[in-house]
Records
---
Amino acid sequence: MSTKVKAYGTSSTENPLEEITIERRTVQAHDVEFEILYCGICHSDLHQIKGDFGAFPPPIVPGHEMVGRVTAVGNHVTKFKIGDLAAVGCIVDSCGHCEYCEDGIEQFCDEGVTFSFNSEDKISGGHTFGGFSKTYVCNEKYVLKMPAFEDLASAAPLLCAGITVYSPLKHWGAGPSKKVGVLGIGGLGHLAIKIAKAMGAEVVVFTTSPNKVEDAKRLGADEAVLSSDAEAMAKYSRQLHFIIDTVSAKHDVNVYLNLLRHDGTVVLVGLPPEPLEIGAFNVIMGRRSFAGSNIGGIAETQEMLDFCFEHNITAESEIIPIDYVNTAFERLEKGDVKYRFVIDMASL
Amino acid sequence: MSTKVKAYGTSSTENPLEEITIERRTVQAHDVEFEILYCGICHSDLHQIKGDFGAFPPPIVPGHEMVGRVTAVGNHVTKFKIGDLAAVGCIVDSCGHCEYCEDGIEQFCDEGVTFSFNSEDKISGGHTFGGFSKTYVCNEKYVLKMPAFEDLASAAPLLCAGITVYSPLKHWGAGPSKKVGVLGIGGLGHLAIKIAKAMGAEVVVFTTSPNKVEDAKRLGADEAVLSSDAEAMAKYSRQLHFIIDTVSAKHDVNVYLNLLRHDGTVVLVGLPPEPLEIGAFNVIMGRRSFAGSNIGGIAETQEMLDFCFEHNITAESEIIPIDYVNTAFERLEKGDVKYRFVIDMASL
């Protein structure tokens, strides 16, 4: 049993997004259905519609930073009732019994996690459609309780951008007496600054854009360094405990490895399409690491939402109507957004 | 005050090593002098005499895996008396007061560690001369108490190769219920197999050489895999907790990152001259790390010697006279040694 739902999608990597109709399963015993109020736009939406992660059968409906209000619940649902705020991020299903799921890192599920769009849908068949649509239906296990953020629209990007930076900051111990570097100020980087500061760390931002230096400080960074300024960079040699690298283009991570103290880590959360080169001495000296991190598990995503609500952290966002979405993707590709687009889904 | 000492060295990267005379300082209050009985040959000796790490003023006397017997001690020496076995590895001096030295990782000393050869000698002036010589003089802080190994010659390589693998195996928790990969079987790799087994880990060896598969098992590996065998490699996907990578040539570490479980680490201890390429997804998926490690501190080197003595671990070595050393370097360059040359210094 399924319901027709209005959405925004594309049938080809060549075409712009347009209004289409998709089908969502009707609510099962453990399902929650919610009306999507706001949906953030993430760089990986752009990658997917362009086919950067490989071909995918049409239609593609992107969107994985959804905030909404519950419109229906299955018989066995205990976490939600109609009218509650709810949110869904990247993960909408996983096996639930592998060691990864048991450890709360469902994103690495042994049987393959189901993402909120462009994933094989193991429950309904076909593939999943994302949040550029009127409603979403999901097992309550993967639905987050959305705190009542004053600016609910700007909280939507927390569902992917927020957890993507919160998880490694937490895992690698950002907090008081730690010096944390943030590399790149975009959707991810600007939230990393806010979250790392709220965790109590000293935050140093590295950017290639002179016009972002002041912005980094406005966002809460203790210091902001233009990465082309060799003298300023040298000042941080062997100074940082941890650097979160949000850059999605090819770049020289060796420069940043050398800013780490011993046992420090540069953790990549961006997705550069080309491999990054690492010189042996840059990890061997100081027992440094180059690591990666990918979103976070469901329990940790809930923890992040509660943390951000408590610390009044949301994304800096530009709220747009759905018919602006193709222009928004063009601007996103050029880096022309401060710092996240969020679609007001009432416009659909 | 100094003493003339017979040594084997070279005045140019073009020339073979030959007998020369160097000067060593006479024993100071905290110094230990010992007659060098055995000295191992390490790949980094070869790098240094070839100038791979940059030009260095002549003469170069390599050798940093020294085992000997104490012949003189300064007035304030408490750790040694004449006749004791003693050993010196890579580190012969450091500032002693930076956080690295205080943390027992003198190899990363903020003011720059003094290596046993080809380092600025901050005590005597000039530069340090290594273990291809009759005697060595060193502050007792950097002299190790050498356990009475039955095969003392074959214990010499522990001073560099041994600590280079022991330190990361310990740091990353190799032990019971851990599956540890060893990449490459040479001077470092063959000791990594023995030490990881003695720590209680399950050891899987990866090699490009069909003729080393059996040898890996003889050395104690639970399994040995030919890295060109895609089917055998696939069996280890997401299986290993930790991989120690001893390869000193350019190679594809992505293959090995994908053999790691979540939160696993590939740690490089080899010194490939070219950068290694890492694809973003290979670290992002599973929160994996690519790290490096460089020898170990003095206290940890002592701990390693005691551990190896207790577990009867020495290198598989080919004992040679000093006048064979140029041929040994040629063979080392071709990988023609199983697995470490050790010079019987009585031949000098």
---
Amino acid sequence: MSNRLTHLDPLGRARMVDVTPKEPTHRRAVARGRVHMTAETTALVARGAIAKGDVLAVARVAGIQAAKKTADLIPLCHPLLVGSVLVNFQIGDTWIEVEVTVDTVGPTGVEMEAMTGASTALLTIYDMCKSSDRAMVISEVTLWEKTGGRSGTYRREDTNEDIDDLTAVVPDDDDYDGFDRTLDPEASGEL
Amino acid sequence: MSNRLTHLDPLGRARMVDVTPKEPTHRRAVARGRVHMTAETTALVARGAIAKGDVLAVARVAGIQAAKKTADLIPLCHPLLVGSVLVNFQIGDTWIEVEVTVDTVGPTGVEMEAMTGASTALLTIYDMCKSSDRAMVISEVTLWEKTGGRSGTYRREDTNEDIDDLTAVVPDDDDYDGFDRTLDPEASGEL
Amino acid sequence: MSNRLTHLDPLGRARMVDVTPKEPTHRRAVARGRVHMTAETTALVARGAIAKGDVLAVARVAGIQAAKKTADLIPLCHPLLVGSVLVNFQIGDTWIEVEVTVDTVGPTGVEMEAMTGASTALLTIYDMCKSSDRAMVISEVTLWEKTGGRSGTYRREDTNEDIDDLTAVVPDDDDYDGFDRTLDPEASGEL
Amino acid sequence: MSNRLTHLDPLGRARMVDVTPKEPTHRRAVARGRVHMTAETTALVARGAIAKGDVLAVARVAGIQAAKKTADLIPLCHPLLVGSVLVNFQIGDTWIEVEVTVDTVGPTGVEMEAMTGASTALLTIYDMCKSSDRAMVISEVTLWEKTGGRSGTYRREDTNEDIDDLTAVVPDDDDYDGFDRTLDPEASGEL
Amino acid sequence: MSNRLTHLDPLGRARMVDVTPKEPTHRRAVARGRVHMTAETTALVARGAIAKGDVLAVARVAGIQAAKKTADLIPLCHPLLVGSVLVNFQIGDTWIEVEVTVDTVGPTGVEMEAMTGASTALLTIYDMCKSSDRAMVISEVTLWEKTGGRSGTYRREDTNEDIDDLTAVVPDDDDYDGFDRTLDPEASGEL
Amino acid sequence: MSNRLTHLDPLGRARMVDVTPKEPTHRRAVARGRVHMTAETTALVARGAIAKGDVLAVARVAGIQAAKKTADLIPLCHPLLVGSVLVNFQIGDTWIEVEVTVDTVGPTGVEMEAMTGASTALLTIYDMCKSSDRAMVISEVTLWEKTGGRSGTYRREDTNEDIDDLTAVVPDDDDYDGFDRTLDPEASGEL
């Protein structure tokens, strides 16, 4: 990890890092995040999901499209051609989790595409549920995995001692599954 | 609060709610969110903020521009003409908080513009800091205040009993300032 | 009907017609169109529609978003704030029909928003089905109804003697329902 | 031809197909479509075409620009870098035909770019002529040719037995030129 | 004229000025600019203009579309609904001049829409001529007139003593017509 | 230099030049331009630059983002993936100069990306200063250097005899530094 911000030049001015010397390689990034809501609102989404699936279907489309326009949203992000975007959801008792996986062949990574796709999918769920629940919270949006590129593979560990507040963000409720995807699908409704 | 999702019709199909019968009125929404990072990364941003401010200056522009293109990102969101967007930051020890305030005169509220502006500003900080810190987490993105429109004023309460996980998200550390803006500006560096 | 093209000035140069003197009024436009495909492909979509509905759910989102960005696509089209967009589908034996209804309060009509929404929804169905059927044809995209504005209400008649080719476009098969929406919903699967 | 829709995963959820394993090759697609209108409106466009050409010049620009933003309009369409877009028109007695040819070097085909370019060019003609003729119909938008890629060359046949309605769409008037471009240019006004 | 920059708050942070308290009124802005080029290149454009007009027709469309997306390009610019955009050209011996007029009814002016439209039309001419002439210069892009709004009417004077370099920008050739549109149309080819 | 415009086909119709046969190579373009303003306004920007730098920080972001969306603004411009965008400023007594450098690896040059980035950065400065100074002029926007590609390296000479008006645009004031960057940085404030 660098101890300086590569998006600032030595005088502190914003810049796009030059990626032209880098060889195109296969790269993947996985991001996850959650929107917390009341049990009643979660149930409304879940029922829709079972019947026609439109809240999550709309959020899936929004996440895919946002991943494609990441460079238009994040000023210093390089444009690239995403080769694949997958958006999946898990429904808990009082939250919906999104996981976005982005693949590309290119000279730069796709973390921001995955993060932007996840954030936008969560904002879309928020938008569609806000008439029912104004106190929703979007949380725990983070990079889960990154492969390809010079810096090699990164996988998020479950605990991160360096970030004090993070321990607050991750509840220590015994039933909490973190981002564990081995949850009983009957209970959590993978969609 | 409604017990159904107005973005779905009675058959569960996605739709834009019709706002044409609504009179234009002045509306405001305030959203907040945080990106958690190591103390080292926070310090890098803070130092930049004192010198040239480019990380936060770029994130501010990104937040403003994203608020303007909300309807392009969130599928069922109505287009509207934002009249004002303010983006401010607070720097903590291991987090940066953004607050986005959006005003408009129109037939529909600006919650999504504020939420989208806040999310995009946080993603931009994430992008500019990820070479230094890959384990950052975007969290606690939520609507803080909403005024105008038929449903009247909404202000988020500090505790929300209905959302179990939220109590987990809000740490009960005594020093935690929540979104309290009365923080000592010397200590937290309002920017 | 005018016998000149208002988007050209007297010297034949393209221009946006000035709408600033016009009062905002409530306006609506309805457009319809079809994509013709093999019975096998239609069945694949219909099965999806019954199970999870994703082809049509994606096409619905695409139609809504395209209606919102009409002025970005059609060069001389005025920007306006759509107040509502509805996208519905009917499934026939060898076609899927889309109907897009757009409402606004503004100084100019929303025909192009409805037409653009319909075309884009059909293109999206085409995209999602092209691995199964390359010979699909998008057809009969037309304005069905227009209300509001100085020129009053327009409703398309079933036969239009002025357009010779149109009689070719509308098959005289007895079972053909045109755009008649009184079709037996059991048979045609309104979605 | 596949008997499943590759844009849906086995559970029926929308997805972008992963193109990262595919080698970039040269690819081309040609799409055509028509807008039918009264003879009077056609003549207005044709006169303009002779004098300054602005209706078709604007439609040509709109078609090119739409081809470039296809991935922003069609949710599951991959972004790619179009290398060339050509937009040509033929004027008949009561219709204008557009032909859009798109070339690229990339891992995925450009059918959707050609189809989207053709649709948008036709919508633009519709927009510029609608003050004169509200009953116009956009029709017969279809893929005419596709080369490159693993699935090899595809050329549309003049008759397609599999699509019943298509025989209705294609008039059996003896003079009908289909999309034959060998028409007498004096008569049909290739532009 | 203010002696501070209203787009910065008292702490020097960028902001969108709040326009929600302002009443919508009719507003107009006119901007002009030139691209200087060799006499040979100018003649190529002029010949095209006489025959089919495509360089200027494309530049006109580009100027209109850019005016519509000004708020997407200029970060602190308010979104507004342009009611009319006119783009005209004059051809000199070694330059092409563009004039863009934008009208709206709204709470804020359209200077930036006119300026952005003019700049983009000039960039488009540059793009289409650069294979013939790489030394072209875009110059003298400025606001010519502004009406409506609280600050009243502004019209640029031919000489502006306050801007020293401007006297350099405006050549003192006797034949120079400035932006005078009474030029002999035979000589300068108004298009 | 060609004596025809490659963006027009032999019949004078606009087209995108086909770049698919060209090999990707490393390419760079540098464009510069100025906005002239009163000494008072220049001082306001310069003071801001010293304190927080927000006018130029916002203009830098706008220039970078515009470079990324060049193909969306300039109709016949090919989409490409910019690999790096640098935006720098110099402050004179009565002007601010921008220099934009764009790098890519691709089959076509990045002149238009550099020119569009420079124009948009200047428009953004104009927007942020217009409350203080309405008579600002954007001038001397031109390509300064171009490397890579079949046509080899191009560097602008200080004097260009072929463009008559250019001698007018370049003042012969002895103090004028043209685009010379060897200016005393104390005096001109490179940022």
---
Amino acid sequence: MKTIEVRTRAREQLVDISAQVRRLVSESGVKEGVIHLWALHTTCGLTVNENADPDVARDIVEKMRHLVPQAEAFYRHGEGNSDSHLKTSLFGPGLTLLIEDGDLVLGTWQGVFLAEWDGPRTRKIAAVVMAA
Amino acid sequence: MKTIEVRTRAREQLVDISAQVRRLVSESGVKEGVIHLWALHTTCGLTVNENADPDVARDIVEKMRHLVPQAEAFYRHGEGNSDSHLKTSLFGPGLTLLIEDGDLVLGTWQGVFLAEWDGPRTRKIAAVVMAA
Amino acid sequence: MKTIEVRTRAREQLVDISAQVRRLVSESGVKEGVIHLWALHTTCGLTVNENADPDVARDIVEKMRHLVPQAEAFYRHGEGNSDSHLKTSLFGPGLTLLIEDGDLVLGTWQGVFLAEWDGPRTRKIAAVVMAA
């Protein structure tokens, strides 16, 4: 198992971690298989989406802020981040990516993102690479 | 393949199944790898979130109830649980967890939950463990 | 790695791809293990839900349209499909399904769907099968 660290800069933010994940794949020496990623936290998730136009990530975060705002009259959890916990379950804390020819299998527009929902923080992601 | 059974007690509820999943991992004898979990249903999912303060799970369920209420004028499915089906796709019916030193790799606050969206019922989860 | 193609017919639609995925499993010859599926796009995802009553898929799509409508005053991405990108992250672009006795492990009502959020288009899904 390997881990990578990601520094986030805002309460809610998608941070492109494609380069770090690619490095894990190439260091593993695995040519064909999968990499399983896991965020070791309950207020950030992992996702894959467009990394060409930064407005895509920005719009995703903005709409999530409207759908699941930080404050709700009915929240009971004392830390004021119930919204961050829900957003994490909606995006999911894990991701399984395919590997071929020693590199990630991604579509033309796909990048790997950490979805920060309660930053800024330093986040840890664990990874296991499996050969096919 | 192994299966575990989970008894839920409410229509919508997060049930902590960490201990049952840990037992599957230890019984498998696998020291390094992953466990793939799969809920064999279309109205409950699997997720990982905080299991320290029970208000976190409670707030998640409560907000999901507001976002995706049971009744909508435009629903056509006759069983009155279209909301449960959508909540299941939003949380996802599967989960891949990492294994190291013969145990689950989880962050300090992470617990594994069955997300019941149409209970109370007895649910079945299938599992396959793969060695790295 | 194998790929399958899926033709979608509407902007937003759940398309049942269970038969195509089953074929990938049987062609692989793997009797026990998992199949990892990956949609190579940023505006469609993969999910599992009921494929008995078509109104379930219809209600899921309809509710997603209400939750995440195409137009929002605050969207900046110029292509007018920020909603499709978010829906993709909410459903997820990947899926790991269990295999036993050379076939998918699915509950009675479960079918595998491509969740189209910006069609109609021809979509490509990559797959890797791993033996347990």
---
Amino acid sequence: MIAKKKVAVSVGDLNGVGIEIALKAHEAIRSFCDPYYCISSSMLQQASALLHVDIPKDFNLLHVNGSFTVTPGVISASSGLYSYLSFLKAVQATQTQRVDALVTLPVHKEAWMRAGIPYKGHTDMLRNYFHHDAIMMLGCEKMYIALFTEHTPLKEVASAVTYDRLVAFFRDFIAATKADNIAVLGLNPHAGDNGVLGDEEKCIAQAIARVNSDCSTDVLHGPLVPDTAFTPQNREHFTYYIAMYHDQGLIPLKTLYFDESINVSLNLPIVRTSVDHGTAFDIAYRHIAKEASYLNAVAAAVTLLK
Amino acid sequence: MIAKKKVAVSVGDLNGVGIEIALKAHEAIRSFCDPYYCISSSMLQQASALLHVDIPKDFNLLHVNGSFTVTPGVISASSGLYSYLSFLKAVQATQTQRVDALVTLPVHKEAWMRAGIPYKGHTDMLRNYFHHDAIMMLGCEKMYIALFTEHTPLKEVASAVTYDRLVAFFRDFIAATKADNIAVLGLNPHAGDNGVLGDEEKCIAQAIARVNSDCSTDVLHGPLVPDTAFTPQNREHFTYYIAMYHDQGLIPLKTLYFDESINVSLNLPIVRTSVDHGTAFDIAYRHIAKEASYLNAVAAAVTLLK
């Protein structure tokens, strides 16, 4: 009998929906992996009391220091700090091979900021921690979207589109996914309409040509006109897309596959997956949060280990 | 018996799919309006010969001067100029009430540029011609998207988002559509996450509050987080969306409703609708262009006249 894979679960912002989802999905997840939840016994007891649910007996913990009063739906520095420490614990447990992979529940960016955490999110922290250019990819079996820029204000996106960064990103993405048919989006309306509506597509086209030449085959296709890239016809051709910015890729993904999508960090020394939703403060501790994305994230982590 | 409405049809770039669609859909359109095609007899004969189709006997023309050799799929100044003159003829015929409304077939932006036409597209020209802030809205019965910025390079979008322009746009849009439940998108990832990922949402929120206050009711909702604005749940709440930029609104629209969408110019003294696709040079004169969007555009023009 092959031992189940061990998965560290960081519990996310305890004022949000993460711990509720972890408790709700535990039985289902327990059937195909051994989860280790990064939280202290006392914080878990506080959350479960607020939820009026029992803590399962085999709910194994990796202890995280710290203590504060959980307040559903509230952005706070103390909750932000605890969510960071839970994540850090999970990263360390994975790095030291105490567990095999890491699944993260959602943190709140402003809570991290209030706690003085200098990262915009999990992927940003992992990139810094491992000194690797982690790639953020979201999606599900039907469609995966890799983000060339992630949590970048829209006004700063265009200046981040440079030849050298594109070539490095394309190479890393191909190496990490082994994908051989990838759609690359343009940046501007109509992919610039031959330069009339912006000219970053020239640089994207050059980077595509360079990497295709290195691969000796046309792995990358584009730059595609963004607004028609996700029509049913194009979705028949492509499963992997590289979007130039956050909403360019995540609007179509969430429009089509909102509940089932997950987040995968590629190009890192560890396997890390995540849910594709936020802390959902508006519905926290109300027993209505959906666990589909979390179940898919844990399943994907186990699959990626194979 | 009520006389049918007269509709001027500008034929678009003759090196593209426009004239093919017009000929193919003529019988269907003839049943509910009187179309007048803005093209010369000789240019029409050239196109129909290339298509190997007969010109219907009741294919009424509004003559447009000029002559060139049609070359399917080629961007050219002469074809760009002719498409502009066809459009201008249709605008003038509508303005002088020789016809009741205007439907446009697609032009090619680069061909216009090569011909020295100083507009980025039809809507841009209409704005200048009528000295009105025309609003570009695309969609179908299930979802309409108004574009706050249109054919703007991505790097210039953020600086166009100003309080005064937003307030004027919101007022014009509400007046033109009489809509009472409108979703307004944020600009940045996560709608800025309370300023962490960009701060234009403050200005959008202020403009929304101002216009809602003038309306004495919450007609406008937002700024919504862009990547979740088009989930099935949100689409149940909203039919009208205001997008801050082209691809933010047109990616989800074309992902969901590619073939059936049309383009409507709001806030003008004339009624003008258009197909929601481009010149499709790659399939021009190959008898595979679809006419659904054109049929919907003509039907919408007739409906808007009522």
